[in-house]
Amino acid sequence: MNTPTPPxxxxxxxxxxxxxxQLRARLAEVWPELQIVAEARNGLEAVALVEQHxxxxxxxxxxxxxxTGVDAARQIAQMAVADDEHLPEIVFITAYDQYxxxxxxxxxxxxxxxxxxxxxxQVTAQRIRQRLAxxxxxxxxxxxxxxxxxxxxxxxxxxxxxxxxxxxxxxxYLEWIQASVGQGIQMIPVAEVLFFISxxxxxxxxxxxxxxxxxxxxxxxxxxxxxxxxxxxxxxxxVNVKAIAAVTRDFRxxxxxxxxxxxxxxxxxxxYTHLFKGM
Length: 279
Known about the structure:
The structure is a single chain. The chain is α/β, with parallel strands linked by helices. The chain has helices at residues 17-30, 43-53, 69-82, 97-106, 118-136, 145-148, 151-165, 218-224, and strands at residues 9-13, 35-40, 57-61, 89-94, 110-113, 176-181, 184-189, 195-198, 203-206, 211-214, 230-234, 237-240, 244-249, 255-259, 265-267. A five-stranded parallel beta sheet has the order 2-1-3-4-5, with helices on both faces. The chain is elongated, with a radius of gyration of 22 Å. The N and C termini lie far apart (76 Å).
């Protein structure tokens, strides 16, 4: 006796209520078995709802407050890797063709132009069904690179989309950190972080009140954080300049950073002593 296939579950994220309602109604027409388990009004809610429901499919508006759809997709991908789970299928909702073409041509995610049209959604629904069927097939290769490590090529697509969202403007730096705190996930404002310290596997995120862990190396954080705010003082350490209380020397002559509001002492390696000339 064949076991019934469980319905595909989806989360919709769009800051416009009418757009969410319209998308839900169109999806009910072209994919009646699809279960919309939650709706998000912004990128932060989207990440939290995906963490809560673990859907197979996520619709993300590219432009949302708090976190853009691209930023939310990055965090959802990181969550999947951290939890060793399948990456949900990503469908971007956009009013801008240039974003859609970039995402679609790579074949790692799909797109729907606003307002969502029935015919286009039918194409998307068919593609998603096929991808999920391939992923869940008995002879599917366990732990494929797309599921377990979304960096190539999804993160490459997200990087291009992020650049298109802000053409010719100032770089967009990371504003939130999704980190493990105890048994849960917490969203930490980057502005509150005092410093980051990495070991071989994890990076410790320290605020005045929270100590958390993320699976992101310092070399990646350097590219995502504002270099005017976070200085690298060691190959494994980034410090918030605003959190530096003092820089002193120990008995060996090494520069030591004292962190405001925290008892930690951070060593400055020789490669970065020029940051504190005159000490």
